[in-house]
User: What shape does this take?
Amino acid sequence: MSGNVPASTRTLRVLTFLATQPGPVPMERIASAVGLPRSSTYHLLRAMIDEGFVVHLPEEKRYGLGVAAFEIGSAYLRHDPLERLARPLLVQLVHEVGQTAHLGVLHGRELVYLLKEQPPRPVTLVTDVGVRLPATLTASGRALLAELPPAQVRALFPSAESFVRRTDHGPQSLSQLRRILADEKRQGFAVEDSFITPGMASVASAAVDHAGHPVAAISVTFRTDTVPPADRPHLAHKIRQAAKALTRRLHG
Assistant: This one.
């Protein structure tokens, strides 16, 4: 049993090092950071790739965090602390805008809803606590994907088969998704209009942790005829304020 401890320690050091980097890095930098020979680092990275904790970019000869590492971080934050930190912000947001608000997190290629706060007279929605929807089709999912390194987005959506369509809307390729994410990252919020349910729209913004990694998204969902396009920038501003407040509570 004790013989496994050094290997476990090295694995954790690799994960910790990669988590502090702005993007994928060459193997030589990883070996230097964890104090391992090149050959040992290679074998350790191969094992971590097989388990999904590291992704290899062969064209760039670099390594970055894999989906499994991101999911573990998200799983930790999905528990009570995150929900208790976010709920008062959602309650206040609903009071201000009069629409249904959600808290969602990424789980692989899906968006999972953790919280839902409603106004006194809510509309019926498919977005309920525990519901999973394709991340590329939801405003919350894309707000979170826009904050991920490009390599992680590519690892999540490696082929056309990775994309799902519920209506006639939504990206169907990695290049389409990247263009949408770039636009939404620049404006600071994501918008979904009839991607999930015809006649329903959502606006979302992401909260990040101290390392700048996306933790959760706050969104507001509404009937398209109740919020004219001219009023949506004001709605987006309120949602961004709530997401920034959650970022501060997460020490982001």
Observations:
- Confidence is low (pLDDT under 50) at residues 1-5.
- The longest strand covers residues 214-223.
- Residues 104 and 244 are 15 Å apart (CA to CA).
- The two ends are 38 Å apart (CA to CA).
